[in-house]
């Protein structure tokens, strides 16, 4: 936590945690204002968690969420009213502090001279030149101001974004490439399943973003708020604009924690957990170790989600722990799946069903989690009936592992790049946008029908890198993506069902059956998951080493 003063009564900060509240109290702050909507990042605590700590410490918490790049004059006026009323000094925060600083700057229009607004923001570490120009322009965004220009601009610094940047630079070491991503930390998210099972430590799945961005690639640490493809421009928060010759869009998914009523108020407490958040995966392991009996629920929302097998991985590994310590017989384990099948590729279902039976799991299809009441330990599901109608079903729990619904990020869903369902609309083979020839997409935010996994991004990145360079006239031929995806289903500690498949669910093993038969649980596949895939990710995929991922070229 780093509080940056704008005035004697107001400081702004990047994202804080509940543990920072005691420090803020010691520093004399009287109020906390959150300008960051819940669910923007995989390591982001929900506001209610911070609010509870603030109230206990005697600070007044206020939630005033602002979508990046959409700070309005009305929101600025509301913020000014809050500042006049709240106990002082006030600490306002968002992801980086930029939104909070922007609201303050807009609220000072007509009160302070433009140069002073800009100077105070600069002293606090914020470049609000474009915001000040907006103020001078009677509130209209100065969209003609281009702050940066690059040959290739990549939106998203996750697995897909870093991999494609490295693959581009591996092919053309002098290529002018920029990555736009506001996060400070890059996560190996496939490892969170094993954190929730006590196999990995959470810290082992994190690296600084600065250490992952490839050498020679410019990192713009900001949030994208809009695309203007006709002008070849990406608009960042703070009204800044970046021009590109080629654009690669791979911002990942939005995990919608608010998509389930009551969830954000109880996450990390009352037996409610999820491996889909960095700081909650250790709580999963804490709950599993402590469970001696009672009822344990596991949920899976409607597709698409990142790593469709992850809800089951949490289920199986928890059951395996209980079996090993002799408590499984005392635990009523239920898996509520919104879909109609256990796994989308039928070839792998028989092996999984053997574990469902062996663990005594009550498998319930067509059940979508709608509400969680943490203090009462009650969960409400919407059950789809055979005649097409729906009914609500309520059950109690001692622990529940929740997988929230997921969508493309808001700035993608509302953009010209999106299809009717809100996903980046690309050709499933070339990964080039169907309408804009200078735009490509990969990873979880596209509308391709492959599984949304890191393994898919590993195969897609070289395809996009080649095709971007071909579109610039630097390479010849087209690279194609066949829909490859992989899901190492951790059915017990020490065994994995290694599901690998292409578009249409066609089974596509990488190894001969005598070595790893993906349709059966394998100890070697577990070794691959635990020992080989993490270094392959950090030192292979993210560094442009395309081991077993070279693209197929066509004329």
From TrEMBL:
InterPro entries: BLH_phosphatase-like, FAD/NAD-bd_sf, FAD/NAD-binding_dom, Prot-tyrosine_phosphatase-like, Rhodanese-like_dom, Sulphide_quinone_reductase. It comes from the Bacteria. PROSITE patterns: RHODANESE_3 (PS50206). Residues 76-144 form the Rhodanese domain. This is Rhodanese domain-containing protein. It comes from Cupriavidus pinatubonensis.
């Amino acid at each position: 936590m780093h509080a940056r003063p704008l005035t004697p009564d107001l400081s702004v900060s990047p994202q804080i945690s509940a543990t920072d509240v005691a420090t803020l109290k010691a520093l004399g702050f009287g109020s906390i204002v959150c300008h960051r909507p819940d669910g923007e990042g995989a390591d982001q605590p929900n506001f209610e968690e911070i609010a509870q700590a603030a109230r206990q410490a005697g600070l007044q918490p206020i939630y005033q969420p602002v979508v990046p790049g959409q700070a309005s004059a009305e929101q600025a006026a509301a913020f000014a009213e809050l500042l006049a009323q709240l106990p002082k000094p006030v600490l306002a925060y968002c992801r980086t502090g930029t939104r909070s600083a922007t609201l303050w700057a807009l609220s000072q229009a007509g009160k302070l001279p433009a140069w002073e607004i800009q100077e105070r923001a600069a002293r606090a570490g914020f470049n609000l030149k474009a915001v000040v120009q907006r103020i001078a322009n009677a509130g209209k965004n100065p969209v003609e101001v281009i702050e940066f220009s690059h040959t290739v601009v990549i939106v998203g610094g996750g697995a897909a974004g870093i991999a494609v940047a490295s693959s581009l630079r591996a092919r053309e070491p002098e290529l002018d490439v920029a990555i736009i991503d506001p996060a400070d930390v890059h996560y190996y998210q496939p490892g969170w399943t094993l954190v929730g099972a006590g196999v990995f430590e959470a810290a082992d799945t994190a690296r600084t973003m600065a250490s992952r961005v490839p050498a020679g690639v410019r990192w713009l640490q900001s949030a994208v708020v809009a695309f203007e493809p006709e002008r070849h421009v990406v608009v960042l928060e703070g009204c800044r604009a970046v021009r590109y010759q080629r654009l690669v869009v791979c911002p990942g998914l939005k995990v919608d924690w608010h998509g389930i009523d009551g969830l954000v108020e109880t996450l990390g407490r009352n037996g409610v957990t999820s491996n889909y958040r960095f700081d909650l995966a250790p709580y999963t392991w804490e709950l599993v170790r402590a469970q001696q009996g009672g009822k344990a629920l596991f949920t899976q929302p409607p597709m698409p989600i990142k790593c469709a097998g992850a809800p089951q991985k949490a289920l199986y590994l928890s059951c395996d722990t209980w079996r090993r310590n002799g408590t499984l017989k005392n635990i009523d384990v239920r898996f509520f799946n919104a879909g109609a099948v256990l796994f989308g590729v039928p070839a792998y279902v028989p092996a999984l069903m053997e574990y469902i039976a062996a663990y005594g799991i009550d498998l319930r299809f067509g059940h979508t989690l709608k509400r969680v009441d943490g203090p009462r330990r009650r969960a409400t599901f919407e059950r789809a009936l055979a005649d097409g109608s729906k009914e609500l079903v309520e059950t109690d729990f001692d622990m529940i592992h929740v997988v929230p619904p997921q969508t493309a990020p808001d700035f993608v869903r509302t953009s010209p790049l999106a299809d009717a369902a809100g996903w980046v609309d690309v050709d499933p083979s070339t990964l080039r946008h169907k309408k804009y020839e200078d735009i490509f997409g990969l990873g979880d935010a596209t509308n391709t029908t492959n599984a949304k996994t890191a393994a898919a991004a590993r195969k897609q990145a070289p395809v996009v890198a080649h095709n971007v360079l071909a579109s610039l006239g630097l390479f010849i031929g087209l690279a194609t993506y066949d829909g490859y995806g992989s899901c190492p289903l951790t059915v017990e500690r020490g065994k994995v069902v290694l599901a690998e498949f292409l578009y249409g669910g066609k089974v596509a093993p990488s190894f001969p059956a005598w070595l790893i038969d993906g349709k059966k649980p394998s100890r070697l596949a577990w070794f691959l998951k635990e020992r080989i895939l993490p270094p392959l990710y950090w030192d292979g995929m993210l560094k442009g080493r395309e081991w077993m991922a070279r693209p197929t070229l066509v004329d």
